[in-house]
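User: Fold both of these, please.

Assistant: Here is the first one.
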Amino acid sequence: MDRIIKITLGLFIVILAATSAFSGYTMYVMNAYQSSLESSYSYSCSITTDSTLTNVTLFIPVPVDPSGYSPVVPKFSARQINGVPESWQTTLFDTGKTTLVKVYIPSLVPPEGTSPDNPYTVLLTTEVPYETVIDTINPLKNGSVYRPVQNIEAVPCDSRVTAKGGSPVCSTFLTSLYAKYEADPNAAVSIKSSITGRNHWSVMGEKSNEYSSEISLLMHGANHGWANVNGTQQDSQGSYDYPFHIP
């Protein structure tokens, strides 16, 4: 009987020690994850031309979620977008379906040496910290993308995307953009905008996941109106080996 009691007590001590060790490890992992977690959005918008543009008015969509919130809007409102020339005027418009930034440029004169082979680009950028985990698996439903999103089609992901790991899902879509300006008939003008939502943490190594969305439009000569814009979307890139369930 004493032997059975000793064995039972020994097993109880082993189980208690294992449970305590597991609880301690779990607590360590959770603390490491929560203390290292960083979520952020990276936004950029570029306007490229090989010729002088005058009386430029653009309505460019900014990424918004289904409720109409955009992580970029506060940066535009506070004039904290990097790279905006002083002569440019930016105004935000909420259409009810999406949010647009109106850009008015009296004159965009490229520097000497600009040519079709060496175009001039103005790049606007900002980084936006985010307080909660970004949904990088289904940003169309829960995140900030360029809206309205139309004609969505699944496409194979290229090597640049697959190299980031995970099980990426890629697609193309259409949205719209307004551009009005005067230019040489041979002028080439392109507008590109992109957003990347990223989560990063460190538990037994650096890990991250992200999604990205980009729109682009190439125009020639003067332009006076709305145009369809091609978009690409890359979701579920990176690691989803979270230490515990993320709602």
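And the second sequence with its predicted structure:
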Amino acid sequence: MTAPFGSRLRAALDAHGPLCVGIDPHAALLDAWGLGQDAAGVREFGLRVVDAAAGRVALLKPQVSFFERFGSRGFAALEEVLAAARAAGLLVIADAKRGDIGSTMAGYADAWLAAGSPLESDAVTVSPYLGPESLRDTITAAVRAGKGLFVLAATSNPEAPSLQTARTVDVAAGDDQTVALRVARDVTWPNGSAAFDGGLGPIGLVIGATVDRVELGLPDDALQGTPILAPGFGAQGATPEDLTARFGALAPNVLASESRSILGAGPDRLADTIDERAARYREVLSA
């Protein structure tokens, strides 16, 4: 039986540090790497990142859209990249941002989390904005399969704050909280790390490294034991020092996601750049 995602994630973070390398084969990066604008190009790009990252970091995060744009051949390329990453001992978060209801969401869960699926990953990103309760069956399926979810809570895109900082009032409970906090409370375990013997749970949140958690109403006590996927490091402006500056006591549970700032080094410098960035994050955490 597969070990719970939270325990596998904790072990990987302890062994390698918080750096999560994105696999984002933008068109400009394919050109810079001398690869074709086709499925063969994204396949080669992804496999090179896997080779460079193996043994150096805990996780990879392929951005599904850059493979999906090439149709069935693109998905076939992604399947190879996912399988190669997991065979190399890397945890894989499929950045698919799926979100729907009922049987449709069950289909997504089967596609990305079911054992033996061609797209099998260790975790997948999902959206709660059809209502957090719409994810309930997907959460159950993930936990039973020893997999994880990262639920969008406080994203770093400039359009997000007007929604995610809005107040939601539960009249019956007399509760007034931000939408981001409502999402966090609805999808994570109420007892936090205590529910997992002080470790990490299987359901994480996406919280941008460039957002203000105070403004979004996400205090430390609401996030105990919750893995946090934090995009925004590197090209979007957050630095390794922001890992502790923004997340404080939660920093050991944060996955610092970088893509363009690493991938832009090119294939010849990729492994060295991953080593350098991974070492810097470890230094920040140990300071």
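The first helix runs from residue 5 to 16.
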